[in-house]
Amino acid sequence: MTATTSQPRYTLAIEKDVKVRMRDGAILYADVYRPREKGRFPAILNISAYQKDKVWVPPSDLEEKANPWMTWETVNPLWWVPRGYACVRVDTRGSGKSPGLSDPGGWQETLDFYDSIEWAARQKWCSGNIGTAGISYHATTQWRVAGLKPPSLKALIPWEGYGDAYRDAVFHGGIFQLYYLATWYATQMAHHLLGDPQEYNPDAFRNERLYNYMRHSLDTGWWANRSARWDRITIPFLSAGNWSGHNLHLRGNTEGYMRAASRHKKLRIHTGTHYHAFYTEEGRTDQLRWFDYWLKGIDTGIMKEPPVKLMIRTGGGTMKDYSFRFENEWPLARTQWTRFYLKAERKEPASDPMGREGRLLGRAPARESAVTYSATGVSHAGVASASSTMLAAGSMHRTGISFETEPLKEDTEVTGPVKLVLWVSGTQKDMDLFVTVRNIGRDGKDVWEVGQQGQQVPVAKGWLRASHRKLDPGLSLPYRPYHAHDERWWLKPGEPVECEIEIWPTGMVFGKGHRIRLDIQPRDGVGSAPYTHYHAAYNTGGENTVYTGGDKASYLLLPVIPPGKK
């Protein structure tokens, strides 16, 4: 670590169950970890339903080691306090030790976060400068509270956190992300009602989160106060995304960087699990340099560096195998937006598990062709669209159709947003389109990456329910469609329609001799679990058709980066 960052010199003092009064008179409870020595220090704040008293025991390979003060997805006081920072954790209403009506992710929580920030700034041990940092839940709360502009909030580090609750987390392309959300909900309820809070807060975590999510299946107003308001965010931030977070958080980090009104903002994207990067020496150094600059006025040099820092994946590795590269913008200015046109070469799916129904070509096929597949996606148990086990597992064998490039003639970097334009028709009134981009090695097998939960994941994913194909022309970009999700455009049997599908951003160098594979499926494909979806609404028993070539040229738009910069 350079000499221009805060060095360890303070000892730890702990205040448990501190009362924090909200504007409406309600009391929330917080733990404060701060330097024991006299002085006024900046504070790093969190608010969540994860219980400030619930100790997290990290995996043995985490660079920060276990201690009694570590909690899930928050900064470690034993690292930050010696460097002259206070760490404040607040139990949100109706969770942990804080009484009240539980509504995680709701408007009241955002107001309470604002009040907690201003409360901390008034304390005698605080310098008045507040920062926020944390992963996932602790990142999404930052995006929301930043839009309220708390006077004392000087800098953010939203690390792997969604910004748009509807598009990023709950309804991917209009398709409900059932399994992860239901499991998260049940787990937090169990932590409260079957864990320690039952003794002192027996009515904790009482809410209708899942019901309300499903009840509001269109984006017609209810989601506004549960999402970031990018035009209102002016506070400096370091947005940290994860290439493997293409099922939950990555879109929030890139959209935040592109759309937030802040003059001073940075984007970094790493890879691997949901928590390892945050606690690495490299990750903590980025965080410390950011906060030292904005909360302490130390010139750490971080603002002299280019604003974008990307981990360059070359396939099949971990964080230790890849290196970072600085860039000046996102998407990259030198991007060669390249169309790979679909050409259907079969009329129905192949039986081979790694079979393909067509190719991805550099030119649009002159003649129209089409391929038809089951809209249900039959499981090993047969047509079981209502089975909870089938929904949880995702595809248990190959469904839908696939297209591949020929072996690549040279290493090919694809870094940035991705879009798929498809001409489709169906026999039912709707159609679910699950899209997966895969890296197929010279041996014909997948080259996997490490996912957020440590699982194997492919290169990128995208989704769209065809009835949600309406675009918002004001927010759509040539390389990133933005769907309105405010009404349903039902299909007419057999009538082709054009769908633009947003595939979340990716960064991958496909090796020479590898193939880029595109799967189009009626249900979750490889590498989806645990972020699987409810796809059994309108399409059971039907057939879907994808058209290619002629006046229905379907294509995959990839951000190809020319070789040269290392």
Describe this structure as you would to a colleague:
- 53% of the residues are buried.
- The strands form four sheets. Strands 13, 14, 15, 16, 17, 18, 21, 22, 23, 24 and 25 form an eleven-stranded mixed sheet that branches. The chain has a ten-stranded mixed sheet with strand order 1-2-4-3-5-6-9-10-11-12, sandwiched between helices. Strands 7-8 form a two-stranded antiparallel ribbon.
- The protein folds into two domains: 12-327, Alpha/Beta hydrolase fold, catalytic domain (Rossmann fold, 3-Layer(aba) Sandwich), CATH 3.40.50; 336-561, Sandwich (Jelly Rolls), CATH 2.60.120.
- It has helices spanning 77-80, 107-121, 137-146, 165-170, 178-193, 197-200, 209-215, 250-259, 281-296, 388-393, and strands at 12-21, 27-35, 41-48, 86-91, 126-135, 153-159, 171-172, 175-176, 237-242, 265-270, 308-312, 323-327, 336-344, 358-361, 369-374, 401-404, 412-426, 432-440, 449-450, 456-457, 460-465, 497-510, 515-521, 543-548, 555-561.
- It has ten helices and 25 strands.
